[in-house]
């Protein structure tokens, strides 16, 4: 990953990227999903470029920070972030999508630590049957 001008760029090889991932992720718009801004494909070089806005922290690192651990409302903040993760997952479920790589490192926390967002859709998958019905 490379960071520049408030943007982060992930550059995977094309064989490591599902075609549907690019087409689906770029259309996902929800406050708890990291938006994909652009995804140019460079076929002669066999890679693509996922462009997203930079997020300061992931959930794993956020809950280990001294600033977080000393907050009297740390548990309430964690509950809020987890609720937001569930909202993002519900949004995906309603579109028959599965994240398939949910872990604390893939939950990104906004600059002001107010919002948790699902990121890294490398393993995004379309469900073949109705989820949760």
UniProtKB/TrEMBL annotation:
Any Pfam family hit: Pkinase
Q: Which domain of life is it from?
A: Eukaryota
Q: Which InterPro entries match?
A: Kinase-like_dom_sf, Prot_kinase_dom, Ser/Thr_kinase_AS
- The chain positions of domain Protein kinase read 1-133
Which GO-annotated molecular functions does the record name? ATP binding; protein kinase activity
Write down the Gene3D superfamilies for this protein, in alphabetical order. Answer: Transferase(Phosphotransferase) domain 1
What protein name applies here?
Protein kinase domain-containing protein
Q: Which organism is it from?
A: Araneus ventricosus
